[in-house]
Design goal:
By secondary structure, the protein is mainly beta. The protein has twelve helices and 54 strands. The termini are far apart. 47% of the residues are buried. This is Endonuclease/Exonuclease/phosphatase family.
């Protein structure tokens, strides 16, 4: 190799006697068959930007043209190697350290691992041992400048969310990462096999990565260099299960360089929920069939009970079969161990696994397993699986939403896919692959607190074999009256032994708009608030007030509107210490109601009405026309005049016990056996109706509402209960339906649906309307939202937070 002529000026701040210093160079010289190369990392190497820190040269290893050389330092502290002279004048070098061998196969030129599963902080730290490559160039002379052979996407994000994942997909589907060879002639990694996506897991041990509104946070993703004429899709997901997408068209990625993309993280305003399981990267791709590629931390065959201790942040370079899942059952296979809990509080997989997948807030992942980019539910054994999300807390108020998801039946399925909207929300329409599906009693309905849609197999293509490439099908349902307590649920429809499994991906919920209230709205809210809102009593009713303000009703009716017990106990307060009902004026003022009135108050359970409009009490009912037979919790007619329309509101709360009123403890069992509690309620309702809606004194009144806790069942729901036609539990509502013109608002608007008004399976709270008022209904629902979802009180076992009943809300259009 020709030596330097010696007449070239070396602009070297360390002086001409210090070859290898500064930005200029001296050309290489062959001395005794050796060539000295001074060692450097590229000044702007992408790994430095990623935070790998300074190299420990004394612990580094360098090979030149396939031969390893010790790294030495001269008297000036500069590091170099003395390499054998090349007769061809070609010098190709690799920079490694003692931990580098895990990144490649037989040499750093072959089977180099370009991870498709990357991690915030951990992947950057591991790059200290990732091989770098350099070669002799005349421009660098006697310096070997090492650079990275992979490309980097530098995603600079601002915003206010916590990021859980960044996924980059090649829209042409050719590999972006996996295994590669280094080609010195090209100077970059060339993929030999792998997958067409890369995921940067940002869960960071459950904390996720917080964005700032002003200062960009950089997310670095290692990718295969090359041209991508079809473009790259970037999907960014956050800890609250929302996401945004951005597409790089005709992307070109250069080895050792960062392609910068600056974005403000701002999911679409209508996006309520998004889950595409982007952090699910382990396991085979059973949807892609037997020719597809998948990786996992180990090559072992995973069963429902194996691999439970896997660290969720483990590297995954072992190729696995297409039908090998990436996890065991995420939760225990025993339902009693997880019922009523969440994935975060009860799981079979490791804590780090749950944190790494951002799934701790999900309700159930029962018999669910990870596959490459999607969830398998119920595919691991002969029992059905269940996947249920957390509450969709991004829903604001009462909304209509569109839910879409992709799914595929497991090969050999003997079951149907059951999709449910849990805790409020009525399924209004459904489609499969864009084809509208008629909702029937067989494929849909509503029971207790869940709306359902069953996906029939006639609408989809079933897999021809386990090994075959499978087809995703898209399901869309429109859901009305969804709230921030609404959850989504997938399961097999059959509970018997069989092949129940399915795969699910790309779950998306978008808000379609607030449920209509009418142009001249009257919103009426009824709720049995359990012992005077005892649940929030110690909190100065702050949660209760905020909840009422959220829905902004014009008129409220509260059952059990007196405070009875001391804070967080079932010890009775002295009457003089009870805030309610006397304090209702002060409490109602906090949520914007200037008017209050208490109904027939004869015991601890009165009804109170509050309103934005003046209230006139027409009648208070405590006793009946028969001695010793009072109306147990009282009743009343309260008149509210709204925009010129006079509305008479009957409030009531009937006798709650199975035995009759006034029966002593010794005779209560016999009384209950004789159905005297049902008969007493019938007596009460007959008297109340006679004094109110059927009273000739009010014959001129057209607009009536009747509401309360009736402590009784209706024959409108008897298709669900299955009681005999003459069952005494139906007596109360038989009288209303047969002897008044009042309409049961919930039953009339949702025929064939059973909507529980309690935390259990009982509809005992009702709102009735006269025909003139019923005709003005715009919307009505039993409210099931995040705050009103009943949970057992930690203080008193038979009390519930915030109540053991659910509210009923109705919107009326008053415009003439």
């Amino acid at each position: 190799m020709a030596c330097s002529s010696g007449d070239k000026h070396v602009d070297d701040p360390d002086g001409p006697d210090n070859p290898g210093g500064g930005d200029e160079y001296e050309d290489i010289q062959v001395v005794n068959g050796k060539v000295r190369f001074y060692l450097r990392e590229a000044e702007n190497s992408v790994r430095k930007a990623m935070g790998t820190g300074e190299r420990a040269w004394s612990k580094s290893l360098v090979s030149v043209n396939g031969k390893s050389y010790a790294v030495e330092s001269d008297e000036n502290g500069r590091y170099y190697v003395e390499a054998s002279a090349s007769s061809s004048g070609t010098y190709n070098a690799i920079l490694t350290n003692s931990g580098s061998s895990g990144w490649y196969g037989s040499s750093a030129y072959a089977d180099v691992k370009l991870p498709y599963s990357q991690f915030w902080a951990a992947t950057a730290a591991s790059l200290q041992s990732y091989p770098m490559y350099g070669s002799y160039t005349k421009e660098n002379g006697n310096k070997l400048v090492f650079d990275d052979a992979f490309a980097v996407l530098d995603l600079a994000l601002t915003g206010s969310a916590k990021i859980a994942s960044v996924k980059v997909e090649n829209l042409a589907e050719s590999p972006l990462a996996g295994y590669a060879n280094f080609l010195p002639s090209r100077g970059y990694l060339s993929i030999t096999g792998g997958v067409g996506f890369v995921v940067l897991n940002c869960t960071d041990n459950g904390k996720c990565v917080s964005l700032e509104s002003g200062t960009p946070k950089h997310f670095y993703v290692m990718l295969a260099p090359g041209d991508y004429p079809s473009g790259l899709k970037i999907t960014i997901s956050d800890s609250e299960h929302r996401a945004m997408e951005h597409t790089l068209t005709t992307a070109q990625l250069t080895a050792g360089k960062a392609t910068s993309v600056t974005l403000k993280y701002a999911p679409d305003a209508d996006l309520v929920f998004y889950e595409s399981f982007d952090n699910f990267v382990w396991g085979g791709n059973i949807m892609g069939g037997q020719e597809s590629t998948g990786y996992a931390p180990t090559a072992e065959a995973v069963t429902p009970g194996t691999g439970t201790g896997r660290d969720g942040y483990a590297n995954s370079f072992e190729e696995v079969a297409y039908n090998n899942p990436g996890s065991a059952f995420i939760q225990s296979n025993t339902w009693d161990e997880i019922s009523g809990k969440t994935v975060g509080t009860s799981h079979l997989m490791s804590d780090s696994y749950v944190a790494s997948r951002n799934i701790a807030d999900y309700t159930y992942m029962f018999r669910c397993q990870e596959y490459q980019g999607y969830l398998a539910c119920g595919t691991g054994n002969t029992g059905r699986g269940i996947f249920q999300t957390a509450a969709l807390k991004s829903i604001d108020g009462i909304r209509s939403v569109k839910v879409s998801f992709d799914f595929c039946y497991q090969y050999g399925s003997t079951d149907l896919l059951l999709f449910q909207v849990v805790n409020g929300g009525m399924i209004a329409s459904a489609s499969v692959d864009g084809k509208s599906i008629a909702l029937t009693a067989d494929n849909s309905g509503y029971t207790s607190a869940s709306g359902r849609y069953i996906v029939e197999k006639s609408h989809v293509t079933l897999p021809s074999s386990e090994a075959a490439v499978k087809k995703w099908h898209n399901v869309e349902v429109v859901v009305n009256n969804a709230t921030d307590g609404t959850m989504l649920y997938w399961a097999g429809n059959d509970v018997s032994s069989g092949v129940h499994g399915f795969y699910v991906d790309n779950i998306e919920v978008r808000a379609l708009g607030e449920m209509g209230r009418g142009s001249d709205n009257l919103r009426v809210l009824y709720w049995n608030i359990q012992n005077g809102m005892w649940s929030d009593q110690a909190n100065n009713y702050n949660n209760f007030v905020a909840w009422v303000k959220k829905y902004d009703p014009d008129i409220c009716v509260w059952c059990e509107s007196a405070t009875i017990y001391k804070d967080n106990t079932n010890s009775a307060q002295a009457s003089s210490a009870r805030f309610l009902p006397d304090g209702w004026a002060a409490l109602a003022a906090r949520y914007g109601h200037a008017y209050t009135a208490v109904g027939g108050w004869r015991d601890n359970y009165p009804q109170t009405i509050t309103s934005k409009y003046p209230i006139e009490t027409l009648l208070k009912i405590t006793d009946s026309d028969q001695a010793g037979k009072p109306v147990s919790h009282g009743a009343a007619i309260q008149r509210v005049t709204v925009k010129g329309r006079t509305i008479n509101i009957v409030t009531l709360h009937t006798w709650p016990q199975a035995y009759g009123f006034g029966v002593g403890s010794a005779d209560q069992a016999a009384s209950a056996a004789n159905k005297e509690g049902d008969k007493y309620r019938e007596f009460e309702i007959k008297y109340i109706c006679a004094q109110t809606v059927n009273n000739p004194a009010y014959a001129s009144c057209q607009d009536w509402l009747m509401m309360g806790d009736f402590n009784s069942r209706s024959r409108a729901d008897n298709w669900y209960y299955g009681y005999p036609e003459n069952d005494t539990r139906l007596l109360v509502h038989n009288h209303i339906l047969d002897h008044t013109n009042l309409k049961d608002i919930i039953a009339e608007r949702y025929p064939g649906s059973f909507i529980s008004s309690t935390y259990g399976n009982a509809r005992i709270d009702y709102m009735y309307a006269s025909p003139s008022m019923y005709a003005r209904i715009v919307n009505a629902l039993t409210v099931m939202d995040k705050w009103t979802t009943a949970t057992q009180s930690p203080y008193v076992s038979n009390f519930y937070d915030p109540s053991d009943h659910r509210p009923i809300l109705a919107d009326f259009e008053l415009k003439q």
